[in-house]
Amino acid sequence: MKKLLLLFVLFSKTAxxxxxxxxxxxxxxxxxxxxxxxxxxxxKSKDIYVFTWDNKNVNILKYNPSLFLANQFTDSIKPETSRxxxxxxxxxxxxxxxxxxxxxxxxxxxxxxxxxxxxxxSLNFDFPxxxxxxxxxxxxxxxxxxxxxxxxxxxxxxxxxxxxKCVVKMFDFSSFIFKNERNTQISFNxxxxxxxxxKVDPDIYTPIxxxxxxxxxxxxxxxxxxxxxxxxxxxxxxxxNIKTGEIKEKTFDLPAPExxxxxxxxxxxxxxxxxxxxxxxxxxxQIKDFDSGKGxxxxxxxxxxxxxxxxxxxxxxxxxxxxxxxxTTEKFLKSINGLPAGVSVFKNHKNSFITFSGFGEYSDFYxxxxxxxxxxxxVPYSLSKAVYFDAMLSENLSFxxxxxxxxxxxxxxxxxxxxxxxxxxxDALRLKDFYVLSYFDSGSQQFVMRKxxxxxxxxxxxxxxxxxxxxxxxxSFGDIK
Length: 481
Known about the structure:
It is a single chain. The protein has helices at residues 188-194, 208-211, 329-336, 409-419, and strands spanning 19-26, 36-41, 48-53, 57-63, 69-76, 84-90, 96-101, 107-114, 119-126, 131-140, 143-150, 155-162, 165-172, 178-179, 185-186, 198-199, 215-220, 223-228, 234-241, 247-253, 263-269, 272-278, 282-289, 295-302, 314-318, 324-326, 341-348, 351-368, 377-393, 426-430, 435-441, 446-452. It is mainly β. The strands form 8 sheets. The chain has a 5-stranded mixed sheet with strand order 16-17-18-19-20, with no helix packed on it. A 5-stranded antiparallel sheet has the order 26-25-29-28-27. The protein has a 4-stranded antiparallel sheet with strand order 1-32-31-30. It is globular.
């Protein structure tokens, strides 16, 4: 995923972070190119687990809910070295398990760790022969799930891994009708092939690239929500019940304006669907109740209007060049016209922070004649364009100017990582009202845990990241690769 470095680099004042070093301990990690860190919380006991590994060992640190080290286990890695970690689970008897996938995603090695007697055992799981690919994986209630596609069939398979057993549920989409932007019927398989399903992590700001995706996946308690915005007419959504395997279809129509709209998208958050539609003349935004489909709020602006609820300037960035501000709504709409639109919502306490955006990538090639052939060598390249602005919704879903003097915990965490670019190995965990960042300090060979809360970051000249346009949003903690 391309990383967007925004205006915060213009600021160089020393900042005081709302953060605390919780603990640190010496840790010897080798072969950092392969090393990873994973934070996990036992959703029942609230214990915290940290897994770190290299080409020799896996280190498991267990902390109690007060984040004091309660247990530690170092186990050798053998067959796992040629695999990728894709998830974890925690059993009823407090044994954590790690799931290591083969590179072709046809087989999973499950390693179960017993921290009390410092032992481990491994189990093998082979996907069925008709297995095609993994869409995403996630943890819920200490259980590990894999959502996968099976070849030749119009359905998805959900694999549930718990206590060394695997249960499979099938979600059949063969009876539902799907159409493309030309209103031509297409198959479910074709839809997710051309618009791959992307999982959204609600615990961080959704990157602009992900927000612009046409097919999204959201995991909530015992449900998977799928949304498809591959047409310009409506959002087609599906509620997948993890327990029963039942599917419910929901459609959310968008109004037809006087002039054709070029781009549309949606975002699911807190049982509401946020829809956006735009062209070079108009910008439409709607909030709807996900269960009933009824409209809650509607906003419409033309190119000649001033958007009153903006909490950042209009920003445009071409590839990795320096971002620049767009002065008017007309210039913003002209820049977003033709790009895949995006809208994302990040809820913190009672307020919701929204980013309206457009993002597109262009791929091409040129011929380099600095080669041994007469015709030259074809060299591929790609360019990206991102356009966006930020806003804030209050508890009653009305737009409000963000006059807060305290940045959010996630802002502080992002700023810390951007200010300490030597930190290459890290993971973050969102708890009730703060974040825990775990990282490896290669200089001191220390494993460090920091707590980030909402709070002031300024020392003298004001908060350098109080405006969301002034810091980077490149970090992702949700998926394990």
